[in-house]
Amino acid sequence: MRAREINKGILFIIDGLGDRPLNELNDKTPLEFAETPVMDSLADEGVTGIVDPLSVGMRVGTDVGCLALFGYEPLKSYSGRGPIEAYGVGMELGVGDVALRANFSTVNGEGKLTHRRAGRIREGTDELASALDGMELSDGVEVSFRSGTDHRAVLMLRGRNLSPNISDSDPGVNMVGVPPKEVIPTDRTDNAVRTSGLVNEFLLKARDILKGHPVNKKRIEEGLPPANAIITRGAGIPKVLDTVMEKFNIRGGCVAAESTIIGIGKMAGFNIYTDPSMTGNLDTDISTKMNLVLKALSENDLVICHIKGTDIAAHYGDYRAKTEFIARIDKELGEILREIKVEGVYISISADHSTSCLVREHTADPVPTLLWGYDVMRDDTKSYSERETAKGGLNRISANGLILTLLDYIGATHRFGD
Amino acid sequence: MRAREINKGILFIIDGLGDRPLNELNDKTPLEFAETPVMDSLADEGVTGIVDPLSVGMRVGTDVGCLALFGYEPLKSYSGRGPIEAYGVGMELGVGDVALRANFSTVNGEGKLTHRRAGRIREGTDELASALDGMELSDGVEVSFRSGTDHRAVLMLRGRNLSPNISDSDPGVNMVGVPPKEVIPTDRTDNAVRTSGLVNEFLLKARDILKGHPVNKKRIEEGLPPANAIITRGAGIPKVLDTVMEKFNIRGGCVAAESTIIGIGKMAGFNIYTDPSMTGNLDTDISTKMNLVLKALSENDLVICHIKGTDIAAHYGDYRAKTEFIARIDKELGEILREIKVEGVYISISADHSTSCLVREHTADPVPTLLWGYDVMRDDTKSYSERETAKGGLNRISANGLILTLLDYIGATHRFGD
Prior knowledge:
2 copies of one chain form a homodimer.
Chain A: E1 8-14, H1 30-33, H2 37-45, E2 47-52, H3 62-69, H4 74-77, H5 81-88, E3 98-107, E4 113-115, H6 125-132, E5 142-147, E6 152-158, H7 190-211, H8 214-221, E7 229-236, H9 244-248, E8 252-255, H10 259-267, E9 271-273, H11 286-299, E10 302-307, H12 309-315, H13 319-340, E11 345-350, E12 354-356, E13 361-363, E14 367-372, H14 386-389, E15 395-398, H15 399-410, E16 415-416
Parallel strand pairs in A: 1-10, 1-11, 2-15, 8-9, 8-10
Antiparallel strand pairs in A: 2-14, 3-4, 3-6, 3-7, 5-6, 11-14, 12-13
Helix pairs in contact in A: 5-10, 11-13, 12-13
């Protein structure tokens, strides 16, 4: 029903990009402080604005922020983080399966957590996961367990009468010195009672298996915290989402390293472009990512590229690292600019949420956003920053509104009414 | 329940007014390029903003955009275009009736569409419609058929067990060289199967009748495409809407030529002001329209005036015509300005949606909007354009928000809460 040819669009999601002014940066934000001539030129020639991931004043996780930027309404489509991570690590979820996020973590002799992420373990997690995968629980319930990025993993239970309405065993960010929590049902159904019991059973058996695992013996020898326990959170059952092809009749390409984003991309029917050199961390290979953007752009109508390092740096409160990482993104973006800044391609830069280096957490601050294209109306804003984009021609919109606007420019939206 | 006297308000809906920058206009939009001293002065002295017809990034039709500007929430109140058009041409719809938009169109000897609008036929459509009106279909279902503006017409079926869930026979914009589509049910009910069969029966019989009609014989002699077939779309059943009197306890006047707007105006309980010199096209008599605004203002509390030409020009990609038409509106508005720019009257100018001369289609771009009144807070914006109003004091609001704001200024809204 579209009256014109499809153009193409690229959306860069710079994770946790938005921030607050810092004394140490002369009351500038990391984005204001960083050298970003490429992004500034796009902001100058295009239109800018500020974007609320979900709604004003609402803090969101990367999953919810990205779900919105991938074209879904999170309040309708969000099914918990577990299923997203499960898709992200390549699991096949069926109706009735329950998926949970898991961390490899470290407990001491008294069973108290000493490291929530087992020292952000990066090596040997595949072997550890294999040792847990395929475990049989009571009533014939089957376990699938797979490792993700760094310390992250996914636990899936398959069997009859399972429920996602169970609590987390993860006691929460910064909670060390306490034992993992017992999983309890969060409603009064027999299924939730039973499922929480099954997860507790898994967690106990997992400790037995991990304790003597060669990977952990080696870690102890090297003075590293052993990954001798699992903590879980975000139980959910899969929701079937319309794919980007079904919703907008376009091909989508997702360039990402982190399993959350790959999971959302898969759920949304995007073709996935990834590479082991992209780590989802500060040491990621941004150049490879940018080259994958070019490849994805040649094979799709809409390309979404996610870059994680900014968020990681901010969670550590490392504003220098965040600033430098932003400058690196800008430089690498400059390398492919000539190939993407052409008629018929629309470029947007935004974020899934803000992460404050001061708070060391996601905040509800709206994220700086720009949109560039050959018939996009240039506004008065000259650079790409939180402060400048707040004066932009897009004004203040939601993340869902942003992706719909980009889709409208590429000619992929449907008209409501006649 | 109102604590103050009613003031009066005028809303001008300039159809498809919003646009994008064009190279040919020195990267200005048609509205920026056009000479509009009158609208600029209202923007200067009043407050401006940008308005999303429905929500950010959502393309809408004139029907949906106007429904919102007439005070309704389209997602709740939209019943398909057919019933709106039926009200527009003066049909009386009853419960269970199904109404469809129809075009007079031209098919060749092989039954393929050659002109979707029979060359935008304007004369003789009443006689052609009369020849189809009153036709009896199977099972005693009665046909009402009435002509609208230009090539437009309305088909109504009255009988038992009818369903609006049927497809369009119109193959779509720019689709010529193909036969009209067979109408099929869009759900699995017997009523939808039966109704689609009845419409197909009507379309077949209509061709027989139109083929030999004197109006068409004359058109062929004159070298014009004969209106020898009907194509249909937008089947719907009437929804009963609260009138403007019921909702806001005010009298509404609607100045319009096009049957869609007249239909919405009637559904909304507005008094209709129209005149044959207003064509709903580029050759419309804007001066007559402005004089009807004065008349309507003396007899009502809220006047909505719709002007179509801008949208028509943009659909043709004719940015010169759009620019000139905007300048004409400005000039004619200037002629009545002294009589409406008075204390107690609030003036707003907005649009039902944007129509890009480049895309030649509606886009989701927000529409430039101004609001003038003696106690409206003047902002810094000095002129009326997409770019300038994006910096205005109203910020970015929805069409529904705009009309409620205007109603609030005239003192007609209710307070929620005590």
